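ARCHIVE CARD
Drawer: 12
Card no.: 0347
Subject: one protein chain, sequence and derived structure
Cross-reference: see card 0346
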Amino acid sequence: MLTMVGRFAETLEEGLRLGMASDIRIQAAEIHNIYVSGMGGSGIGADFVHSFVRHELSVPFSVGKTYDIPGWIGPNTLFIASSYSGNTEETWSALQLAIQKKARIVCVASGGKILDKARELNLDYVQLPSGWSSPRACLGFSLAAQLSILVQSGLVSGEILEKIKDTIALLRSESDQIREKASHLAAALEGKTIVIYSCDRTEPVAIRFRQQINENAKRLCWHHVIPEMNHNELVGWRTASPDLAVLFLRHADDFDRNAFRIDLTKDLVSHFASSTIELFSRGNSLPERSLYLVHLLDYVSVFLAEKNGVDPVEVRVIDFLKSELESMIS
Protein backbone atom coordinates (compact mmCIF):
# COMPACT_ATOMS: atom_id res chain seq x y z
CA MET A 1 0.00 0.00 0.00
CA LEU A 2 2.85 2.38 0.76
CA THR A 3 4.19 1.79 -2.75
CA MET A 4 0.78 2.33 -4.33
CA VAL A 5 0.21 5.55 -2.38
CA GLY A 6 3.63 6.75 -3.54
CA ARG A 7 2.51 6.33 -7.16
CA PHE A 8 -0.44 8.74 -6.86
CA ALA A 9 1.05 11.36 -9.20
CA GLU A 10 1.80 8.60 -11.70
CA THR A 11 -1.81 7.38 -11.66
CA LEU A 12 -3.10 10.91 -12.27
CA GLU A 13 -0.76 11.27 -15.24
CA GLU A 14 -1.69 7.87 -16.68
CA GLY A 15 -5.40 8.52 -16.12
CA LEU A 16 -5.16 11.73 -18.16
CA ARG A 17 -3.30 9.95 -20.95
CA LEU A 18 -5.76 7.06 -21.13
CA GLY A 19 -8.80 9.31 -20.86
CA MET A 20 -7.72 11.68 -23.62
CA ALA A 21 -6.67 8.75 -25.86
CA SER A 22 -10.11 7.15 -25.61
CA ASP A 23 -12.76 7.68 -28.28
CA ILE A 24 -15.52 9.66 -26.56
CA ARG A 25 -18.26 10.37 -29.10
CA ILE A 26 -20.73 12.10 -26.79
CA GLN A 27 -21.16 15.85 -27.34
CA ALA A 28 -22.21 18.52 -24.85
CA ALA A 29 -25.14 19.73 -26.96
CA GLU A 30 -27.00 16.46 -26.36
CA ILE A 31 -26.37 16.31 -22.61
CA HIS A 32 -28.84 17.80 -20.11
CA ASN A 33 -27.46 16.19 -16.94
CA ILE A 34 -24.60 13.98 -15.71
CA TYR A 35 -24.76 10.97 -13.42
CA VAL A 36 -21.79 8.95 -12.19
CA SER A 37 -22.32 5.55 -10.60
CA GLY A 38 -19.46 4.17 -8.50
CA MET A 39 -18.73 2.65 -5.12
CA GLY A 40 -15.91 3.12 -2.60
CA GLY A 41 -12.54 3.79 -4.16
CA SER A 42 -14.10 3.83 -7.63
CA GLY A 43 -16.83 6.27 -6.65
CA ILE A 44 -14.87 8.87 -4.67
CA GLY A 45 -13.25 10.12 -7.88
CA ALA A 46 -16.63 11.44 -9.02
CA ASP A 47 -16.98 13.46 -5.81
CA PHE A 48 -13.70 15.17 -6.61
CA VAL A 49 -14.68 15.75 -10.24
CA HIS A 50 -17.91 17.42 -9.16
CA SER A 51 -16.05 19.61 -6.67
CA PHE A 52 -13.53 20.69 -9.30
CA VAL A 53 -15.95 21.55 -12.14
CA ARG A 54 -19.26 22.44 -10.50
CA HIS A 55 -18.84 26.18 -11.09
CA GLU A 56 -18.05 25.66 -14.77
CA LEU A 57 -20.69 23.07 -15.64
CA SER A 58 -23.96 24.33 -17.10
CA VAL A 59 -25.81 21.05 -16.40
CA PRO A 60 -26.52 19.25 -13.11
CA PHE A 61 -23.99 16.65 -11.90
CA SER A 62 -24.96 13.86 -9.50
CA VAL A 63 -23.11 10.94 -7.98
CA GLY A 64 -24.89 7.68 -7.14
CA LYS A 65 -23.62 4.97 -4.79
CA THR A 66 -26.34 2.36 -4.86
CA TYR A 67 -28.12 -0.18 -7.07
CA ASP A 68 -30.79 2.01 -8.63
CA ILE A 69 -30.83 5.29 -10.54
CA PRO A 70 -32.99 8.45 -10.41
CA GLY A 71 -36.11 8.67 -12.54
CA TRP A 72 -34.79 11.67 -14.47
CA ILE A 73 -32.04 9.69 -16.20
CA GLY A 74 -32.77 9.36 -19.93
CA PRO A 75 -31.43 9.81 -23.48
CA ASN A 76 -29.94 13.19 -22.60
CA THR A 77 -28.03 11.93 -19.57
CA LEU A 78 -24.30 11.36 -19.60
CA PHE A 79 -24.06 8.23 -17.46
CA ILE A 80 -20.56 7.24 -16.31
CA ALA A 81 -20.19 3.77 -14.82
CA SER A 82 -17.01 3.76 -12.70
CA SER A 83 -15.75 0.43 -11.36
CA TYR A 84 -12.06 -0.42 -11.21
CA SER A 85 -12.68 -4.18 -11.31
CA GLY A 86 -15.56 -3.84 -13.74
CA ASN A 87 -17.62 -6.21 -11.59
CA THR A 88 -18.97 -4.03 -8.75
CA GLU A 89 -22.53 -5.29 -8.33
CA GLU A 90 -24.14 -1.96 -7.42
CA THR A 91 -22.57 -0.20 -10.42
CA TRP A 92 -23.46 -3.14 -12.69
CA SER A 93 -27.10 -2.90 -11.57
CA ALA A 94 -27.19 0.87 -12.16
CA LEU A 95 -25.59 0.42 -15.59
CA GLN A 96 -28.26 -2.08 -16.61
CA LEU A 97 -30.97 0.40 -15.68
CA ALA A 98 -29.19 3.24 -17.53
CA ILE A 99 -29.04 1.07 -20.66
CA GLN A 100 -32.80 0.53 -20.39
CA LYS A 101 -33.28 4.30 -20.12
CA LYS A 102 -31.13 4.79 -23.26
CA ALA A 103 -28.70 7.10 -21.45
CA ARG A 104 -25.46 8.16 -23.15
CA ILE A 105 -23.03 5.84 -21.38
CA VAL A 106 -19.29 5.85 -20.78
CA CYS A 107 -17.71 2.99 -18.80
CA VAL A 108 -14.53 3.42 -16.77
CA ALA A 109 -13.00 0.10 -15.72
CA SER A 110 -9.91 -2.08 -15.97
CA GLY A 111 -11.90 -5.08 -17.23
CA GLY A 112 -14.75 -7.26 -15.98
CA LYS A 113 -18.31 -7.52 -17.20
CA ILE A 114 -18.80 -3.75 -17.32
CA LEU A 115 -16.06 -3.41 -19.92
CA ASP A 116 -17.41 -6.48 -21.73
CA LYS A 117 -20.85 -4.86 -21.88
CA ALA A 118 -19.36 -1.63 -23.23
CA ARG A 119 -17.72 -3.54 -26.08
CA GLU A 120 -20.82 -5.64 -26.73
CA LEU A 121 -23.08 -2.58 -27.07
CA ASN A 122 -20.45 -0.32 -28.69
CA LEU A 123 -20.51 2.07 -25.73
CA ASP A 124 -17.77 4.61 -25.11
CA TYR A 125 -15.26 3.48 -22.49
CA VAL A 126 -11.92 4.22 -20.85
CA GLN A 127 -9.91 1.12 -19.96
CA LEU A 128 -7.79 1.55 -16.82
CA PRO A 129 -4.58 -0.36 -16.10
CA SER A 130 -5.20 -3.73 -14.42
CA GLY A 131 -3.22 -5.47 -11.70
CA TRP A 132 -3.71 -3.09 -8.77
CA SER A 133 -4.70 -5.03 -5.66
CA SER A 134 -6.65 -2.18 -4.03
CA PRO A 135 -9.15 -0.13 -6.06
CA ARG A 136 -8.90 2.67 -3.49
CA ALA A 137 -5.29 3.18 -4.61
CA CYS A 138 -6.56 3.84 -8.16
CA LEU A 139 -8.24 7.18 -7.39
CA GLY A 140 -5.87 9.00 -9.75
CA PHE A 141 -6.87 6.78 -12.68
CA SER A 142 -10.64 7.18 -12.30
CA LEU A 143 -10.58 10.88 -11.35
CA ALA A 144 -8.42 11.89 -14.32
CA ALA A 145 -10.33 9.63 -16.70
CA GLN A 146 -13.67 11.15 -15.70
CA LEU A 147 -12.33 14.68 -16.14
CA SER A 148 -11.03 13.69 -19.58
CA ILE A 149 -14.50 12.46 -20.54
CA LEU A 150 -16.02 15.81 -19.62
CA VAL A 151 -13.34 17.69 -21.57
CA GLN A 152 -13.62 15.49 -24.66
CA SER A 153 -17.40 15.87 -24.70
CA GLY A 154 -17.08 19.67 -24.46
CA LEU A 155 -18.89 19.89 -21.12
CA VAL A 156 -15.89 21.61 -19.49
CA SER A 157 -12.81 23.34 -20.89
CA GLY A 158 -9.34 21.84 -21.07
CA GLU A 159 -8.18 24.21 -18.35
CA ILE A 160 -9.04 21.61 -15.71
CA LEU A 161 -6.53 19.19 -17.23
CA GLU A 162 -3.81 21.82 -16.96
CA LYS A 163 -4.63 22.15 -13.26
CA ILE A 164 -4.24 18.39 -12.85
CA LYS A 165 -0.86 18.59 -14.59
CA ASP A 166 0.14 21.35 -12.17
CA THR A 167 -1.00 19.08 -9.34
CA ILE A 168 1.21 16.27 -10.60
CA ALA A 169 4.19 18.63 -10.64
CA LEU A 170 3.41 19.84 -7.10
CA LEU A 171 3.13 16.32 -5.69
CA ARG A 172 6.41 15.28 -7.27
CA SER A 173 8.31 18.38 -6.16
CA GLU A 174 7.10 18.05 -2.54
CA SER A 175 7.14 14.26 -2.26
CA ASP A 176 9.69 14.08 0.57
CA GLN A 177 8.10 16.90 2.55
CA ILE A 178 4.65 15.32 2.20
CA ARG A 179 5.83 12.00 3.60
CA GLU A 180 7.63 13.69 6.48
CA LYS A 181 4.59 15.78 7.34
CA ALA A 182 2.37 12.71 7.15
CA SER A 183 4.64 10.87 9.57
CA HIS A 184 4.36 13.67 12.16
CA LEU A 185 0.59 13.87 11.72
CA ALA A 186 0.19 10.11 12.14
CA ALA A 187 2.14 10.30 15.40
CA ALA A 188 -0.23 13.00 16.64
CA LEU A 189 -3.31 10.94 15.71
CA GLU A 190 -2.11 7.56 16.95
CA GLY A 191 -4.56 5.79 19.24
CA LYS A 192 -7.31 8.36 18.67
CA THR A 193 -10.72 8.24 17.02
CA ILE A 194 -10.41 10.90 14.35
CA VAL A 195 -13.11 13.49 13.68
CA ILE A 196 -12.67 15.35 10.37
CA TYR A 197 -14.17 18.77 9.68
CA SER A 198 -13.91 20.74 6.45
CA CYS A 199 -15.75 23.27 4.31
CA ASP A 200 -18.19 21.93 1.73
CA ARG A 201 -15.87 22.12 -1.28
CA THR A 202 -13.27 20.11 0.65
CA GLU A 203 -15.71 17.38 1.65
CA PRO A 204 -14.36 14.88 -0.92
CA VAL A 205 -11.00 15.07 0.88
CA ALA A 206 -12.70 14.45 4.23
CA ILE A 207 -14.63 11.49 2.82
CA ARG A 208 -11.48 10.07 1.25
CA PHE A 209 -9.53 10.28 4.51
CA ARG A 210 -12.40 8.71 6.45
CA GLN A 211 -12.49 5.82 3.98
CA GLN A 212 -8.71 5.40 4.13
CA ILE A 213 -8.76 5.32 7.94
CA ASN A 214 -11.48 2.66 7.74
CA GLU A 215 -9.80 0.45 5.15
CA ASN A 216 -6.09 1.05 5.69
CA ALA A 217 -5.84 1.74 9.43
CA LYS A 218 -8.86 -0.46 10.31
CA ARG A 219 -10.37 2.20 12.59
CA LEU A 220 -13.70 4.00 12.82
CA CYS A 221 -13.90 7.76 12.35
CA TRP A 222 -16.39 10.33 11.11
CA HIS A 223 -16.56 13.60 9.23
CA HIS A 224 -18.88 16.59 8.91
CA VAL A 225 -19.00 19.75 6.82
CA ILE A 226 -18.99 23.39 7.85
CA PRO A 227 -21.28 25.38 7.87
CA GLU A 228 -23.84 22.54 8.15
CA MET A 229 -22.02 21.10 11.17
CA ASN A 230 -22.59 24.38 13.01
CA HIS A 231 -26.34 23.84 12.76
CA ASN A 232 -26.45 20.43 14.46
CA GLU A 233 -23.33 18.43 15.44
CA LEU A 234 -21.77 21.35 17.28
CA VAL A 235 -24.40 20.94 20.01
CA GLY A 236 -23.19 17.37 20.59
CA TRP A 237 -19.88 18.59 21.96
CA ARG A 238 -20.84 18.65 25.64
CA THR A 239 -18.54 16.28 27.52
CA ALA A 240 -14.82 15.61 27.64
CA SER A 241 -13.83 12.99 25.04
CA PRO A 242 -10.14 12.17 25.52
CA ASP A 243 -10.26 9.48 22.83
CA LEU A 244 -11.20 11.98 20.10
CA ALA A 245 -8.81 14.02 17.95
CA VAL A 246 -10.30 16.64 15.64
CA LEU A 247 -8.68 17.42 12.30
CA PHE A 248 -9.67 20.59 10.44
CA LEU A 249 -8.89 20.54 6.70
CA ARG A 250 -8.34 24.07 5.42
CA HIS A 251 -7.46 26.08 2.32
CA ALA A 252 -5.97 29.56 2.52
CA ASP A 253 -8.76 30.84 0.24
CA ASP A 254 -11.72 29.33 2.09
CA PHE A 255 -14.80 31.56 2.02
CA ASP A 256 -14.21 34.12 4.76
CA ARG A 257 -17.39 33.35 6.71
CA ASN A 258 -16.52 29.64 6.72
CA ALA A 259 -12.94 30.38 7.77
CA PHE A 260 -14.30 32.36 10.72
CA ARG A 261 -16.69 29.52 11.54
CA ILE A 262 -13.78 27.06 11.61
CA ASP A 263 -11.85 29.33 13.97
CA LEU A 264 -14.82 29.49 16.33
CA THR A 265 -15.59 25.77 16.05
CA LYS A 266 -11.98 24.85 16.76
CA ASP A 267 -12.04 26.94 19.92
CA LEU A 268 -15.33 25.42 21.08
CA VAL A 269 -14.47 21.75 20.53
CA SER A 270 -10.96 22.15 21.95
CA HIS A 271 -12.54 22.19 25.42
CA PHE A 272 -13.73 18.59 24.95
CA ALA A 273 -11.46 16.77 22.46
CA SER A 274 -8.00 15.53 23.37
CA SER A 275 -6.50 17.59 20.54
CA THR A 276 -7.47 19.81 17.62
CA ILE A 277 -5.24 20.02 14.56
CA GLU A 278 -5.42 22.35 11.56
CA LEU A 279 -4.05 21.03 8.27
CA PHE A 280 -3.62 23.62 5.53
CA SER A 281 -3.29 22.64 1.89
CA ARG A 282 -0.72 23.82 -0.63
CA GLY A 283 -1.17 24.82 -4.26
CA ASN A 284 -2.70 27.48 -6.50
CA SER A 285 -6.04 25.88 -7.45
CA LEU A 286 -8.71 23.73 -5.83
CA PRO A 287 -7.47 20.55 -7.59
CA GLU A 288 -3.90 21.19 -6.44
CA ARG A 289 -4.94 21.94 -2.88
CA SER A 290 -7.40 19.07 -2.59
CA LEU A 291 -5.15 16.43 -4.11
CA TYR A 292 -2.17 17.62 -2.06
CA LEU A 293 -4.25 16.87 1.04
CA VAL A 294 -5.37 13.53 -0.39
CA HIS A 295 -1.79 12.43 -1.00
CA LEU A 296 -0.62 13.52 2.44
CA LEU A 297 -3.58 11.92 4.23
CA ASP A 298 -3.29 8.68 2.27
CA TYR A 299 0.22 8.41 3.70
CA VAL A 300 -1.13 9.19 7.17
CA SER A 301 -3.60 6.30 6.91
CA VAL A 302 -0.82 3.86 5.96
CA PHE A 303 1.47 5.10 8.72
CA LEU A 304 -1.39 4.66 11.20
CA ALA A 305 -1.87 1.11 9.91
CA GLU A 306 1.77 0.43 10.69
CA LYS A 307 1.36 1.87 14.19
CA ASN A 308 -1.79 -0.23 14.69
CA GLY A 309 0.02 -3.37 13.53
CA VAL A 310 -2.47 -4.08 10.74
CA ASP A 311 -2.14 -4.82 7.02
CA PRO A 312 -3.44 -1.79 5.08
CA VAL A 313 -4.26 -3.92 2.00
CA GLU A 314 -6.33 -6.58 3.79
CA VAL A 315 -10.13 -6.13 3.66
CA ARG A 316 -11.32 -9.64 4.59
CA VAL A 317 -14.63 -8.47 6.06
CA ILE A 318 -15.57 -6.84 2.73
CA ASP A 319 -14.54 -9.99 0.87
CA PHE A 320 -16.71 -12.04 3.24
CA LEU A 321 -19.68 -9.74 2.66
CA LYS A 322 -19.28 -10.02 -1.10
CA SER A 323 -19.03 -13.82 -0.96
CA GLU A 324 -22.20 -14.03 1.14
CA LEU A 325 -24.03 -11.80 -1.35
CA GLU A 326 -22.85 -13.96 -4.24
CA SER A 327 -24.08 -17.10 -2.48
CA MET A 328 -27.54 -15.54 -2.22
CA ILE A 329 -27.60 -15.13 -6.02
CA SER A 330 -26.32 -18.63 -6.76
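Annotation on reverse: The chain has a mean pLDDT of 96. The longest helix spans residues 286-308.
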